[in-house]
Amino acid sequence: MPVMDLIEQFTTDFINIRAVIIALIMVGLITSMTAMTYILEQRAFKLRRPKFTHLIHGIEAASVIVSIILLRQVFWVMNSGDVLSWGYATAQLTVLLFSLYMMQNLAVELVNIVMPIFFYGQGMYMGRGWQYVAVFITMSLLLTGSIIYVSHHQASALDATWKYLALQIVYGGTWCFIIWSVHPFDMWYTLTVLVVFTIYMAVIRFFVTRVSNFVDRFTRLDQAVNYDELTGIRNRASFDTASVDVFGFYEKHPNVPITMVMFDIDHFKRFNDQYGHMTGDAVLKHVAQHFQHELAKQTSRGEVFRYGGEEFVIIFRGVDAQKARQIVTTIRNSLQAEPLVYNDQALTITVSLGISALKAQDSDFDSWFKRVDHYLYQSKEAGRNRLTIEGATMALK
């Protein structure tokens, strides 16, 4: 293709009002995806439930697909039913690669791997691409390799300029040849488009690294403020915040049961005195993480907090006292059945519990809290390794 024709085609694809509109739409999509990813990932981190995390990853992958479809529809409308444009291709590739760096999950990785197959399938349906199937297969394998590498080395790829540049060239270059295998553009023009894509992704890198740094700083701050450093579960400050929210929710929805469980580790001082404070810390961490892990298996309506020392609190929303008793009894039984092995010592751990539902006559959160605390004390006074629910104490086997 003559140089003037190349310049004219480049101008048509990238330097016009439609290209500016598409660029703005692409930036809007990337911004929306970033905000959505941040909100969802923070929610997943706080809940720490595998099923919810998988759901979030599916939503993120769906957002990538929706963004690609939206870009296609915009190009379709702006180009009178024609989407055969390098500007369109570059916008799509930018969104796809951005999703790999930002979302960092298997579902998005699979979307990136499947997309060229879908694209080539469309080309074959239209009667194109058969003569260059070897090019497509070769480039698809290289593309898949680059996608897998990016998915598992986002941080190092973003930090190292040369590595980032190399990955953009491989990712963009393989895609260019995949597109070429269906729509054989002039090779020099194809390489020019690769340069444009690399520039696009340089801008995206600037954006992603700063957003990632901001998110990391915010996450570390949130961890420091709301999570216990030793056990990794929510701390007293987070509990105080939750208590206000829970009581306010109950005032608006008095028919929704809310139950509090308080428990502490039986004879915790003995672990410290007999085995040392490091063992005591290991016991605290073991109990906290066991309750959090098992609680997530049983329900999505409970949240565990470290209130202080060896004392913990669980707040259940939408769960009455009897159901809460069943849940925590099951968790407590599995805790006793799975001793903590620390420094070649098998340590059997039991807990005492107090349980009570929030009631209409509770004038404030403190009156409810004091009642549950009294029930916990009642379990300990009765000999420990017991559970008291609404004033009735029972031994635990």
Automatic annotation (TrEMBL):
Matching InterPro entries: Diguanylate_Cyclase (IPR050469), GGDEF_dom (IPR000160), Nucleotide_cyclase (IPR029787), Rev_trsase/Diguanyl_cyclase (IPR043128)
Key words, A-Z: Membrane, Transmembrane, Transmembrane helix
PROSITE patterns membership: GGDEF
UniProt keyword Plastid present: no
SMART domains in alphabetical order: GGDEF (SM00267)
Keyword Membrane: yes
TM segment ranges: 20-40, 52-71, 106-123, 129-150, 162-182, 188-208
Protein name according to UniProt: GGDEF domain-containing protein
Domain GGDEF: 256-392
A Pfam family per the record: GGDEF
